[in-house]
Amino acid sequence: MVPARTCDWFLQIDHFALRRDVPHCADFRFPLPLDSGSFDGAFCHHVLEHLDYEAARRFLGECHRILAQGGTLRIAVPDAEKAMRLYASEPNRLFDLMPKYHGKSYQTAAEVVNEIFHADRMNRHCFGWDFETLARRLREAGFNQIEGWNAGNRSTPNSLRTILGGLPSRSTSTPSNSANPCVSS
Q1: How far apart are CA 86 and CA 96, in angstroms?
Q2: HEC sequence for the chain
Q3: Whole-number Å distance between alpha carbons of 104 and 119
Q4: For a Cys-Cys bond, which of 36, 64, 126, 149 suits 181, CB 3.0-4.6 Å?
Q5: pLDDT tens figures, 59-116
Q6: Residues 6+ apart with CB under 8 A from 40
Q7: Hey, which residues does 172 pair with through a beta bridge?
C-alpha cells in the first residue's frame, strides 16, 4: 500500500508475508487493521489490479477511512484504456509497455495484452482499470477531487508532492492515459 522504504513517519504494508523487506502484512480484501483518520497519505503502487472488482471497491473505501481529513491517496495501475487503444491502433507499441525485468519474450500483441491483464498465476491481475471506472469508484468511496496523471510525466502532481512532503491534503490517484495516474480530492 505504501512505498518500500521505512522511517519514523512511514508504514509499509504488503500482502507478501514471505518477503523479508515487508514489515507489515494485510489481506487487502478485508478491512485494514488501521485506525480511521490515522494517515496523511497512502500510496497504492500496483495493488488495485490484483483485487477482484468488488474487493477493490471495498479497499478504496478502506483507504478513504484510514486517511485523515485532507489526506492524499495515490494509485498506480496498468491503464486498460491505453493498452486497448494501442492494441487496436498500434499493436507493435504494446511491446514497449512491458518492463525488461519481466524476463519474458512476447511474440504477439495479444500475448502482451494477456500479460498486462492476467500476468502469471502468482501475480494475477483480476481487473483492468481505466480512468473513468476508477474515478467513479473513488467518488463512490468518498473522494471528491480526482485527477489523472500519466506515467513518465516528469512533473509531480500536487497530491504526490503532498505525500512525499508529509503534508496533509485529501487526494487520490487514478489512471489516465498511462499506467501512473494521480488524483486529488
Answers
A1: 11
A2: CCCCCCECCECCEECCCCCCCCCEECCCCCCCCCCCCCEEEEEEECCHHHCCHHHHHHHHHHHHHHEEEEEEEEEECCEHHHHHHHHHHCHHHHHHHCCHHHCCCCCCHHHHHHHHHHCCHHHCCCCCECHHHHHHHHHHHCCCCEEECCCCCCCCCHHHHHHHHCCCCCEEEECCCCCCCCCCC
A3: 11
A4: 149
A5: 999 999 999 988 889 898 888 898 899 999 999 888 887 777 667 788 899 988 888 7
A6: 67, 68, 70, 71, 72, 162, 163, 166, 167, 168, 169
A7: 146
Cβ contact 59:172 at 8 Å: no
CA count, 13 A, side-chain hemisphere, 49: 24
Cβ burial of 60 (10 Å; 0-12, 13-18, 19+) is buried
Residue 129 near residue 77 (C-beta atoms within 8 A): yes
CB 177 within 8 A of CB 150: yes
Closest by CA to 127, choosing from 27, 26, 58, is: 58
Report the C-alpha gap between 71 and 88 in whole angstroms. Answer: 38
Nearest alpha carbon to residue 52 among 29, 35, 77: 29
Give pLDDT tens digits for 150-179: 766 555 454 443 334 333 333 344 333 223
Compute CA 145 distance to the chain's CA centroid, rounded to the nearest angstrom.
17
Rounded to 5 degrees, φ, ψ at 37 are 65, 25
